[in-house]
Amino acid sequence: EPEVTQTPSHQVTQMGQEVILRCVPISNHLYFYWYRQILGQKVEFLVSFYNNEISEKSEIFDDQFSVERPDGSNFTLKIRSTKLEDSAMYFCASTRPRSLTYGYTFGSGTRLTVV
Amino acid sequence: SQQGEEDPQALSIQEGENATMNCSYKTSINNLQWYRQNSGRGLVHLILIRSNEREKHSGRLRVTLDTSKKSSSLLITASRAADTASYFCATESNTDKLIFGTGTRLQVFP
């Protein structure tokens, strides 16, 4: 069964450093997403991406965050200057158009620890 | 305000028993989905129910949707220890995103 692949599985970074989280969505999916989950809390929407541009973003997704689909397969989330409160599990997801039938496929996540 | 709130927050049952989790939401939706998350792992899609559907089955899972009450329930029948996980409802409206509920932690004891 096709999977969404995320790398790395765990990243430790110093406060103020830039991090790039990588994702390879399912190849025939058209919508891509980043979500995050702070330990023990709910899953929060960050950003959706369609047709090579952001289609929606949350209040969390401020100027420190950016997303890119640099080629036909990768989808990245960049945090320019990490803060302690950015420590969380980050999930990438993809879906076919409007997911009327299929639901979203999530990757296994990247655990980001900011120290 | 939260789009999805679930109850109970935690549920402990014995193997073989049924587990019922409830989800309430606030806005109109296109569909409602249920996901499972094992501790520290990714989210796995379980089942999707459209706004014009009232009930859906998949294996040991049964989902109901009441759009007049803005609520849904997930029933897992004949639970197994391997069903131990957190379960989240998530709603999709006319926007490009899923909004997740707060989740129910299910513990099934052998």
Short description:
The complex is a heterodimer of chains A (115) and B (110). With 115 residues, chain A is an all-beta fold.
Structure notes:
The complex is a heterodimer of chains A (115) and B (110). By secondary structure, chain A is mainly β. Chain A has a single domain (5-98, 106-114), classed as Sandwich (Immunoglobulin-like), CATH 2.60.40.10. In chain A, 0% of the residues lie in helices and 50% in strands. In chain A, the strands form 2 sheets. In chain A, strands 2, 4, 5, 6, 9, 10 and 11 form a 7-stranded mixed β-sheet that branches. The mean pLDDT of chain A is 92. Chain B is 0% helix and 58% strand. Chain B has strands at residues 4-7, 10-14, 19-25, 31-37, 43-50, 55-58, 61-66, 71-76, 85-92, 98-100, 104-109. In chain B, the strands form 2 sheets. In chain B, strands 2, 4, 5, 9, 10 and 11 form a 6-stranded mixed β-sheet that branches. In chain B, a hairpin with a 5-residue loop joins strand 9 (85-92) and strand 10 (98-100). Classes of the chains: A mainly beta (115), B mainly beta (110). Chain A binds chain B through residues 31, 33, 35, 42-45, 48, 50, 55-56, 58, 89, 91, 93, 98-109, 111, and chain B through 2, 30-31, 33, 35, 40-45, 47-48, 50, 88, 90, 92, 95-103.
Summary keywords:
heterodimer; A: 115 residues; mainly beta; Immunoglobulin-like; 4-stranded antiparallel β-sheet; 11 strands; B: 110 residues; 5-stranded antiparallel β-sheet; globular
Mind telling me which CATH architecture of chain A this is?
Sandwich
Major sheet attributes of chain A: 7 strands, mixed
Q: Pairing-aware structural class of the strands and helices of chain A?
A: mainly beta
Shape of chain B: globular
Instruction: Look at the structure and give the mean pLDDT of chain A.
Output: 92
**What would CATH call the homologous superfamily of chain A?**
Immunoglobulins
Number of helices of chain A: 0
Count of distinct structural domains of chain B: 1
The percentage helix of chain A is: under 10%
Structural class call of chain B reads mainly beta
The low-confidence runs of chain B, each spanning 5 or more residues with pLDDT under 50, are: none
- What letter string, H or E per element, gives the SSE order of chain B? EEEEEEEEEEE
Give the largest interface pair and sizes: A-B, 28 and 26 residues
- CATH class group of chain B: Mainly Beta
